[in-house]
Structure formats: C-alpha cells, structure tokens
Amino acid sequence: MEKNRKKYRIDTEENKEFLKEIRENLLAFGHKFPSPQGSSYYLGDDGTPWKERKRETWITCRMAHVYSIGTFLGHEGSKELADAALKGLRGELYDQTNGGWYPGVTAEGAALPDKQCYGHAFVILAASSALLAGRPGARELLEEALELFDLRFWDEKEGLAADTWNTDFSVLDDYRGLNANMHTVEAFLAVADAMGREMYRTRAGRIIDHVISWAAANEWRIPEHFTKEWKPELEYNKERPADPFKPYGATPGHGIEWGRLITQWALSVFREDEQARKPYLDAAEKLYQRAVGDAWNADGAPGIVYTTDWKGEPVIHDRMHWTLAEAINTSAVLYRTTGKERYASDYAQFMEYLDNQVLDHVNGSWFHQMNEKGEVTGSVWPGKSDLYHAFQSTLIPYSRTDVSVASAVYRKSCCLEQA
After folding, report:
1. Enclosing H/E stretch for 315
2. What mean pLDDT is predicted for residues 308-334?
3. Which of 81, 188, 192, 269 is the most exposed place for a label (fewest CB within 10 A)?
4. Which among 183, 254, 317, 321 is annotated as catalytic?
C-alpha cells in the first residue's frame, strides 16, 4: 500500500513515472482529432471523433499546442498532428474577408458568427508553441494573430482585453469577462517566453493587477463578469448557472489557475527582487487557498465543485476535469515556490483522486465531468473534447515555475539533446 501511494507524492520517482504514463496515454488518445481540413473534431469518450458536432477554434488551438509540445517529447506523429491543426487555423477557421478567426465551423463547414477574444488568445498560444517546435508557417501565424489581437482586443487604456466582436469587427459587445483575460495572460506570457517580446509580459502584469484588486475586494473570490465599464456583475447568468464559459458566481478552478499564472508572472519579472514579488505570491496563495477551501470536498465527497456563490457555498456541484488539472498544477507550483508542506499534501490528495475517480483506465484520457457521486455525466462537457488541461498537468509539476510550459519543455529538451 505504501509503495502504491508513493506515486501520488511530488518528487518521487513513482510520481514522475505515473505522470509520464498519463502523458503518453493522453497523446495517444488524441490522434484522431484532425478533420480533413485540419480543424479539430470534438473527441468522444473513447477518442472517436464526434463528427456531427461543430469544430471549434479553441479546441484546434489546444491540439496544436499539445502536439507542438509533443514534438519536444519525441512522441511519434506529433509533428504531423501539429501541422494538421495549423492547417485548420490557416484554412477554414480563418476569416479571409474580415481577418481573424471564427469561433468555429459547423459539421458541414459553415463559419460560426462573431470573433471571440478567448479563441484568439488560444491562436496566440498555439502559434507560440508551434514556433518553438519549428512548424512551417508558425511565425507568420503568430505575427498575424498578435497584430490582430493588438488592434481588436487589447485595450491599452484599461490594461485589459475586450471580449467579443461581431464577425466583421464593426460592433463590440458590451460584455467584458475574465475568462478571456486569463487566457490572454497565458498567451502573452507564452509570447514573451518564446519570442522575447517583453511588452506582452508587461501587459500580462496589468491584467493581473486588476484581477488581484477585484479579488482582494471580494474575499478572494474572483468576479468573472463585467459591464463595458469594467464594473463587476456578480449576479450575471444566475438563471443559467452551469454555462460552460460564463457560469454564475465564483469559479474556484479559475481562482486556482490565476494563482499559478500570477506566480509565473511574478517570478519571471522579479527574478532577483524577493520583496517586489512577495505581494503577488501572497495573492496567489490567497486565491488558491480560498478556492480550495471553498470547493474541495465542499459537499462531503471528493472533488472540486464547479461553482460557488459569493459566500463560498456550492452552486454547481459537478466536478470538471480541468479544475483538478489546475489544482495539480498550482499546488505543485506553490510548493516549489514557498516550500510549504501543505501544498505537497494537497498535490498528493489531488493525484490520488485523479487515479481513483477521474482517470479513465479503460478508454484513456480523463473523464471531463462527474457529479458529486463520482458518476460520469455530460450536461456541460460531454465526451473528452481535447487534451490541453490534462496534458499540461503532467508537465507543469516538474517544469520551471517562471516559464510557460511549452518554453520550459522546449528548453529542457534542448539541454538534454546537448548533453
């Protein structure tokens, strides 16, 4: 029993091997994602594409990102799979008339309306990883994505990103949201690490300062939805609390994820200045501790609830796989950054829960949604759409804490090759 439990503890050889096994299984699971046009099919429970569903840009980007990293890891077929996703981003997902990327296409290939910051942030992330992987056309894709993002989504005055335009960029929606800004931070840090463009790291810091301010004023539960003047709308979507992208209330998984991104940013900016980075690391810990305190085992059963109200009471009890992945990541990062044993203990709990309930030991990948009874469900996330969150959680615990995951793995693989 003791030997088996070693695989849950950070820095044991057993844990490293466990994550490697999960990572290789995930990469194998996703091989069938490319459609003939390159855009990503939504994957079903056993990895078979659900071809009747729309093919979305954010999923395609995530697959490009994952398999670009796969090239550093020597996973067979990764180069071809990354290139297939890039083909989709340069092809049917791209708006040749107005510029930018559609949210996706229907099963028949018709473009979906609007232009979303969320998807465009993922284009930047995917292209940054593909650039590191040396994939053809990646640099051109990244340059175009950055130029468009700077023009359409980045608000230099506010130091934040807008959310949604109509298809031809003539009308900007009044909604402002932090989900898109969170992935903008991730994308900006990836660009800074991959290309050395520190302007984007500075921008990420401006977003982070806003988030910390809003969270600190709200007992470290982050408001997610805002008016066009960036005033929090705490009751937004109360009638649709389980929305997959704009749920009501606090999203503990985002509090956890922000904790990791804030830590990465602070360590990368204040490398030699412990005093300057301390307020940011303190904020990262408070965000993580609030989210885990509210959501882990909140209803007496293992797992992290999807959402809570503003007093920390569960609203949507279902557990999403991505939240667990981010909990694994952030507990590891905070352990490495602070040395506090509580984070290593949390990490072990999360890994044990992953093994016992969330890993699909029959079909592969992770179950993407479970209820409080531990039963697989699909009211928000049916099937297993992509690999991104789960895959990153097999790498981040043993990667540099001050560098984006693709750059960290790339640098490590280069050093190994030179050795």
Report:
1. strand 314-320
2. 98
3. 269
4. 254
Rg of the chain, C-alpha, whole Å: 20
Asked whether the beta carbons of 124 and 59 are under 8 A apart, the reply is: no
Choose, from 65, 75, 317, 389, the residue flagged as catalytic: 389
CA 45 from centre of chain:
21
**Cα–Cα distance measured from residue 222 to residue 258, given in angstroms and rounded to the nearest whole number:** 9
| CA gap 126, 87 in Å, rounded | 12
d(CA 187, CA 260) in angstroms, rounded, equals: 14
Question: Cβ(262)–Cβ(283) under 8 Å?
Answer: yes
Tokens of 128: 């940054």
Q: In the predicted model, is pLDDT for residue 177 greater than 60?
A: yes
Burial status of residue 102 (CB atoms within 10 A of its CB: 0-12, 13-18, 19 or more)? buried
Q: Is the pLDDT of residue 419 over 50?
A: no
pLDDT at 1: 56
368 is catalytic: no
How far apart are the C-alpha atoms of 92 and 37, rounded to whole Å?
Answer: 7
Active site residue 389: yes
SS3 308: strand
Of the candidates 314, 253, 242, 318, the one whose C-alpha atom is nearest the C-alpha of residue 287 is 253
Is residue 159 predicted with pLDDT exceeding 80?
yes
Q: What is the pLDDT of residues 248-298, one digit of tens each?
A: 999 999 999 999 999 999 999 999 999 999 999 999 999 999 999 999 999
- H-helix or E-strand containing 286? helix 274-295
User: Tokens in use for 131?
Assistant: 């650039």
pTM of the full predicted structure? Answer: 0.98
In this prediction, residue 417 carries a pLDDT of: 44
